[in-house]
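Protocol step 4 of 6.
Sequence for F-box domain-containing protein (Verticillium dahliae) entered exactly as in the expression construct, tag removed. Do not edit the line below.
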Amino acid sequence: MATSPRRLAEQPWSLNDLSSELLALILEHLRDIDPPSAATSRRLSRRFEAVATPIVYHVLCLNESIVSTGAEARYPNLFRNVAAHTNHVVARSNLDPFGIKRVLDRVRRLQSVQWDYVVAEFNSGLLWLPSDVLKSEQTRHHTTKLHVQGLPLREFEGHLRDTYVRAIPTDLLTTLKLASPAPPLTTRLNSLKQLLLLSRRLETFHYEDRGQGTNFKFSPSERMPALKELVLKSYDWNHSREDVNRNWDFSRLESLDLVSVPIFNFLVSVNFSDLANLQRLHCEDYSAHQATDKRQDATRGLHLLVKKHIRALHSLSLTCHISSFPLDGILAHASTLRSLHFRDHVGFGEEDRRCPTLWPADLETLGRQLPFVHTLEIDMDIALCDPPEFLRAICAFKKLHTLTLHVQTVLHPLEIVHPGMDRDHDAAVRTFGYLIQCKQDLEARAVPGCGPQPWRHMTINVGGWRRAMVRRFSAAWRRQNEQGVFAERCFILERDGGSSGRLTFREERQGGWKTERQLEKTGRRLLALTLRRPRLSTTATAPLRLNLPTCSVWNSFIRPECSAHLVFSSLEV
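Step 5 output, structure tokens:
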């Protein structure tokens, strides 16, 4: 006799009722977000152990214990599982090379090895190298891919000229990511170029220098491998169109990052048709050393490239002259775009310059016609827009859950800042509250299940804050800095990953994460910002006292009665 649906609903349910395939999918996701928990799940039952063990050992991250002498005797089960299930190995350059080789020798089907350099120098015998530990017969039969990260950028001459090639098997190299050089401004890249030209399987290349940077000098017969992902940071691109046709191959390129690169020089040297398959484009111009400012022309060229030649972008990040970049270029990718970063060159590094800002109506148009964008980064100069209207337009992005908003400090370098006053902090808190309220209002009006995505992460960057930066150096700002008052700030509001989904507020400062308020000296370190009500509170509080006139619209926007009802609770470490 069939069991009634009601009786089935009353029966207890557990993960053990799932098929092995579904259980494996869940454990793979758990491994990606919390590897220790995935490993612990093997202890739940024999079935869980059978399903989880291949997943846990699929990628093996080496540490001192695993590569130490006698590890095979101490961890026999681990090495049996490595032999049976491991396909990918991640290791650091400061681990014992003989121990690494012992582990790799036990892997039967080695599909990839990731080498992470953690020191600035490397020499065979002092620091292990890929060529020291990889068996050629092991890798030849299984087409192993080699991923090298943090490679120190050096120029070797004389008998050391082939150092890179001897250190890294070029027939296996698939990914090469360089470390930021010290000292910067390397003038010759011949050793690195030799490695690249010989690595015909190379798919990903990340180059990083500092300042103006330098560039490769190619001979007519030299040609780079066909890359899929290219990142150039502080690279002085001055290759001609003929050079690019001869020496570069962009036919397979899917991801391109040009940061601190003369964008105009790049655009006039490449065939736009070669960039048609890009899914990610990130451009930040650097042309201060050029004889003429070509950034306006570069913006127009980027618009032509994005609108007419690239087929389907998933991520677009541009720092340009936004007034010269019509929005139809962005809207051309409405069906695929997921991440949009759209900023102006002016920025907020100087308080006496106005940063071009999108009209709220244009921003709302983007929000309504880009249905899949979940990440957004834009500028908001309060002197050029109505802040509440601008923030409401941001919420038109239905899928948006991650926002970075750049604004100018509300402080003046000559104003008197009284103890206990923090106007940038107060403005940030109220902006967060307003954005949350806008989402809640949209949710209340939406059809159930069709409302906007809740906020996961919001950043308000004040005054051009960066992790590594030189603060404003006028005499007035130096005096303010001496008093602990800064124009550059960064405020974060993010939802934690726990079941409570609580929003936490903090300020990021140079040197790492800092809480906004320190609770004595006892290890309490975070103030959690939790919305207690779905509606904005009108609880009366003391009005802000402004020492100098500011924009009247912003002045009214940051009144305390505009803020959400916020409760701060201390959390134990």
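Step 6, annotate. Residues 203-345 form a domain with the Leucine-rich repeat, LRR (right-handed beta-alpha superhelix) fold (CATH 3.80.10).
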